[in-house]
Amino acid sequence: MLAEWLDQSLAGEPGAAVEGDLPGGRYRIPAPGLLELLPSTPVADAPALVLSAGIHGNETAPIELLGELLAHLEAGQLTLATPVLVILGNLAAIRAGERFVATNLNRLFRRGLDATGDEPDRARTLMGAVDAFFAEHGDRPRLHYDLHTAIRDSQYPRFAVEPYAETATRPEQWQWLAGADIQAVLHQHTHSWTFSHYSRHYHGAQAFTLELGRALPLGENDLTPLAPMERLLAALLEGRPPATRPAAAMAFFRVEHELKRASRDFRLCFADDTPNFTEFAPNTLLAEDAEAGPCRVGETPLRVVFPNARVEIGARAALLVTAVPEPC
Ligand SMILES: O=C(O)CCC(=O)N[C@@H](CCC(=O)O)C(=O)O
Ligand SMILES: [Zn+2]
User: Fold this and answer.
1) Best mutation site among 209, 210, 304 for ligand 1, i.e. most ligand atoms within 8 A of its Cβ?
2) CB of 46 closer than 6 A to ligand 1?
3) What is the pLDDT of residue 15?
4) Averaged pLDDT for residues 93-120
5) Whose CA, among 6, 87, 210, 286, lies 20 to 30 Å from 31?
6) Measured between alpha carbons, how far is residue 94 from residues 10, 154, 197, 223, 233 in Å?
7) Which residues are in the AstE/AspA barrel-sandwich hybrid domain (predicted)?
8) Which tens digit of pLDDT belongs to each residue from 250-298?
């Protein structure tokens, strides 16, 4: 049934049953692309876990990864021990194989709350689902991994984006992520409208956007490099302590500046296929914009993450980041 939920969600077919049994618990399908898993014998203090994928429709490796975990649960190879909310984000965009249909869903979490359209509607549905899930399991710690893949290559193919928060991330998270072979962490410098920020800021969850390699079409992903991440998620589903490594196994970065596209006449001054985290020397011209003027590196070298000149006007065209010694 769980594998069918995934297939039916992707195919846009309504599932037959909205709730039922699974080995070790029950499942519920509150809305298309949402799946709640409830254990019959929950482990005390295991985090209530939100796992989301497909917030961008062309980022498919995490969808396949969740499919494997659901198949293992269904086959009884994993025993559910904590409540889990599995989310397929932008269903229409996943079906189209596009990042989004009309606008970027991952900029709509508590932004434009009155906006109309499929993506604003979906953001409201997802926020409602997370609100209800965390409220229902309010006695547990809260954890949300929002699983993505990046448009281009990266000097660190697997990295976490830590949304801005006034409170520090729990140290065990760094150890779990390092244990799952996450290679770098990027601390956001300010509040944002992303799904992981929503869970962190409004629900006090430990929450991250996890970039798990490059975006490829469904069926073309090599999940081998994600085996340690799959083991982390499996441990969490089973309420077991995950494998750990020292946080220092990862490189840490901080966003210094968000480069925004201000006008139609905007260009990035480096090759389109420049890998994430590429460093540029002081005074390098990074972008030209008819409205905002040129953007140059200052006195300290800067690395570029998520460069994209084709974003909507007013949206982020790149993050400019520097290395920091340790979690901050
Ligand atoms: O590869 C890219 O350029 C974009 C990858 C991506 O979708 N990244 C997320 C990061 C979200 C965050 O800042 O937490 C996004 O842009 O939504
Ligand atoms: Zn993404």
Assistant:
1) 209
2) no
3) 67
4) 95
5) 210
6) 7, 23, 22, 18, 22
7) 249-323
8) 999 999 999 999 999 999 999 999 999 999 999 999 999 999 999 999 9
Amino acid at 8: Q
What is the spatial distance between Cα 199 and Cα 217, in angstroms, rounded to a whole number?
28
Alpha-carbon dihedral sign for residues 258, 264, 268, 269: negative
**Residue 203 annotated as part of some ligand binding site:** no
Q: Is 56 annotated as a binding residue?
A: yes
Measured in Å, how far apart are the chain's first and last C-alpha atoms? 43
Any idea what the CATH number is for the domain that residue 317 is in? 2.40.50.630
**154 Cβ below 6 A of ligand 1:** no
Same domain, 71 and 211: yes
Question: Considering 203, 229, 249, which residue would you say is the last residue of a domain?
Answer: 249
Please state, in angstroms and rounded to a whole number, the distance separating the CA atoms of residues 163 and 171.
Answer: 15
CA dist 104 → 111, 119, 194 (Å): 12, 8, 10
Q: What is the pTM of this model?
A: 0.97
Report if residue 254 sits inside a domain: no
Q: How much is the ipTM here?
A: 0.98
- What domain count does the chain have? 2
